[in-house]
Amino acid sequence: MAERKAPNIVFIMADDHAAKSISAYGHGMNSTPHIDRIAKEGMLFNHCYVTNSLCTPSRAAILTGQHNHVNNVMTLNSVINNRGPNVAKQLRAHANYQTAMFGKWHLGEGPTHQPTGFDDWSVIPNQGEYWDPHFINPDEKEMKRVPGYVTDIITDKCIQFMENRDKDRPFFLMCHHKAPHRGWEFHPRHKHLYNDKITIPDTFTDDYKNRAKAAAVVKMRVADDLTYFDLGLAQPQGGRDVGAKLFDQVWSFPQRKVPHPEDVTKMVLRDSDDGTEFRFQTPEELAEFKFQRYMQRYLRTIQCIDDNVGRMLDWLEQEGIAEDTIVVYTSDQGFFLGEHGWCDKRFMYEESFQMPFLIRYPRGIKAGSVNNDMIQNVDFAPTFCDLAGISVPSFMQGVSFRPLLEGTTPETWEQLVFHRYWMHNDACHNAYAHYGVRDHRYKLIYWYNDDLGIEGAIPGGTEPEWELFDCQEDPLELLNVYNEPSYKDVVIKMTRLLEKKMMDIGDIPLHPRF
Ligand code: SGN
Ligand code: CA
To answer: Is Signal found in the keyword set (predicted)?
Structure first.
């Protein structure tokens, strides 16, 4: 890329948007023409990964370019120290950017945790609301409720910021959508969409054999763990608890039992909106209904993001600045869409580990290109600094992937990604802590299964476990080959890579050394 005036950067990030549900990734489950445009006119990454598959830690990694043990935002309960450095501060201080952030923040509230480094910001508290959402604004004691649908409102705020910008300076805009996060409250204008059945993933009825214990005990199952509210169903017994599960009493952890077929045939579920009735003959039919209902609602909320990405792209064009503006579309992590029977994320298994990443910059990226190199969310901030023409500050641990955008993969590019999920007080999901690395062929995961004295964690702990997946032979990750004699050398190689990576980033291994 030749030196030219600093580009504007529009960073659009959804919450829990799996790559599979962007049509540019070619899975055919939905149609997202506007998001696809970013790839068609720019570059699509097939191997972008999150360093910790959870909202708050991922957002901290994106802002700081640091791994979570360094920025100290390791779990959903962490908050950011907003006096620390971040990419917006860097662009503002060293490249004269105007900076703004609108939408989901999820890094804490109040004077020491709210956004800093942004000339303008307006964020939803915590997970926020889909309808008539509250926003926290700078210098205001009270949150303000804004009438309307959250995805439209966040986009309005972004466009308004761009309209009022100082045209003599570049801008860095972070547009953080709440959708398609759980609750999946879609806008009625998308209700006619996705009424046809979606193909159920091959691993939907995974029995979790030959795998670490974590897979069987985590509470993320579509069939067991979704609530009336998640599925847009009226709770028969009424009450105010929106977290009530269907068949909660029968299916609850630890003795998950398939509900008695007779109970299923007696069950009548009703759409909470129009009262449509649903009846079932078998527990399997009920599980499939939940999957279809989940996907329908999830994909409809995505359609609204797609409409609004279209609005942003059109606006940039009408303003005549599309050529000078980098547009990114990504998500804070991946998401399970029924694979292994799950919704949600947290694990290093592929669907939740992979982030979608699409980027357009007409002046610097060849249209329609696809990249297969490995990148991570910690690399975003260094890349933005590099593209803005400033040096990457030493506090950032990620690496600029500007060469990849220019179509060149340096020989020294590290084709290895790291993931670490920390145990925290989150009994309602019960996801075990783990860390590991993945290269193009293999994925090594260490489950340390310690209770770490944290409330809600594994009481008393349990034996640590290793997993090794051959991503080429077993892309669905159904077979742990860690103890297979034929993979002995791979285990040694991957363990060394893991240890080297942890040393590079300053993290502390908990596993026994070779
Ligand atoms: C809530 C959701 C979970 C989700 C976490 C974290 N339940 O607890 O499904 O995993 O947030 O999400 S909900 O019923 O309250 O929606 S994250 O995107 O912030 O990491
Ligand atoms: Ca998220």
So the answer is: yes
Which of 408, 429, 457 is the last residue before a domain boundary? 408
Asked whether residue 227 is domain-assigned, the answer is: no
pLDDT tens column, 114-171:
999 999 999 999 999 999 999 999 999 899 999 999 999 999 999 999 999 999 999 9
**38 Cβ below 6 A of ligand 1:** no
Q: What is the pLDDT of residue 423?
A: 79
Q: Relative to the CA of 183, which ligand 1 atom is closest? A: 16
What's the chain's length in residues?
514
Same domain, 34 and 92: yes
What's CA 267's distance to the chain center, in Å? 34
In a domain, 264, yes or no: no
- Distance in Å, CA 332 to ligand 2 centroid: 5
CA distance 304 to 301: 5
Strand-strand pairing, 171-176 and 98-104: parallel
Condensed to tens digits (0 to 9), the pLDDT of residues 22-80 reads 999 999 999 999 999 999 999 999 999 999 999 999 999 999 999 999 999 999 999 99
- Whole-model pTM: value is 0.95
Atom of ligand 1 at shortest range from CA of 227 = 14
Q: Cis ω on the peptide bond leading into residue 138 (within 30° of 0)?
A: no
Indicate if ligand 1 lies below 6 Å from the C-beta of 344: yes
Q: Per the domain annotation, does 323 fall within a domain?
A: yes
Residues 356 and 485 occupy one common structural domain: no
**Domain limit, last residue, from 408, 443, 463:** 408
Q: Which ligand is nearest to the CA of 128?
A: 1
Ligand 2 centroid to Cα of residue 176, in Å, is 11
In this structure, what CATH number is given to the domain that contains residue 497? 3.30.1120.10
Q: Is the pLDDT of residue 387 over 60?
A: yes
Neighbours of 31 (CB within 10 A): 15
